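Hi, here's the filled form for the chain we discussed.

Project: internal
Contact: R.S.
Residues: 286
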Amino acid sequence: MIIDGHTHIFTLDTDRYPLADPASGYRPQIDGSAALLKRRMDAAGVDRALTITTGFYGWDNRYSLDQLKGNEDWLAVGVLVDPASDDAPAALENCVEQGACGLRIQRHLFYHQSLADPVSTPLWTKAADLDLTVDINATHEEYPSVEQRVRHFPQTRFVLDHCGYVSGTLRPDENTVAPVLHMARYPNVYAKLTFLPLASQEPFPFRDVHWMVRKVVDAFGPERCLFGTNFPSEQYSPNADMAQILALFAEEIDLTDEERAWILGGTAERLWRWKNDDNGGLHGAR
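And the returned structure, exactly as it came back:
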């Protein structure tokens, strides 16, 4: 079972699905539909995927939830909810009623308080009550606040998105996974290994940053690590397409067969749920 643990889907139809900030340069550059995602998955040999509502929709999850309908056997959805809204718990519950099985805490685009700010505690609490896996979109500098939440909700599964931006515009001056390794002490924290194409100074297969993966896997154990392709690559990760990212973890990085099995799907299968999932999805995660 191969599961892509990090994708985004969206449409160029901004009349039906308007952007949160039409003046922003952060907007869809291509048609990133669920249909395209499925074609790319089939071509690469990927069985299932988690998709997370993309930030340029703000807190509007309609597109990802609309695309979930009829695709529940291979698609799982993580949603964005305004952490500062009084209606956040109800909004999250409504998304779950429509099929969502995850939440992403998104701070950088529209919500600028600390992740430890009490105003957002009702949302974190509701996610815990609903037994959702929570992706945390945070930089290394924010990890002290993340750690507070991890300690406060020890039964909630938390995924460190992109390992805290060791790459891209939010990365530190030098590549490091030290803050990520610190979080490995908490058994309810998982590491999403989605940073290689942007952290590397080399073309595929990005050998100069394989050491970062090795350190994270050794610290967390492969059963708490997962891969993701950042679909669509044209929008988010132009240095590598889905097939190449899959090949990174299936062939290129020095991993054991057991480590590959967990990272390529075993971990994700325990974090989210799909229709008719014989393994029960979330139930094996703890």
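Let me know if anything looks off before we file it.
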